[in-house]
Amino acid sequence: MAGERLLTETHCKGARAAGKVFYLNDGGGLRLRMRPNGSKHWIFRYRLNAKEKNTSLGTYPQVSLKQARDKAVEARALVFDGRDPILVRQVARARQAIAAECTFELVARDWLAHNRPQWSTHHYNRNEGLIRRYLLPKIGHLPIDVIGEQVLFLALKEAYDRGVAESARRARAVASQVFSFGRATHRCEHNPARDMADNPYFKKPQVRHHKAIAQHDVPNLVSDLNRSGENQKLSDGVVCGLKMALYTGLRDYSIRSAKWADIDFERRAWTVPGSQIKGKEVHQVPLPTQAVMALRQLEQVTFDGPNSYVFSSKSKDGHLAENTLRKALHRLGYKVTLHGMRSLITDVLNEQGFRSDLIERQLDHREKSSVRAAYLRTSFLEQRREAMQWFADWCDGKCNHPASNNVVLLKERS
Question: What span, in angstroms and rounded, lies between the C-alpha atoms of 244 and 238?
Answer without folding.
Answer: 10
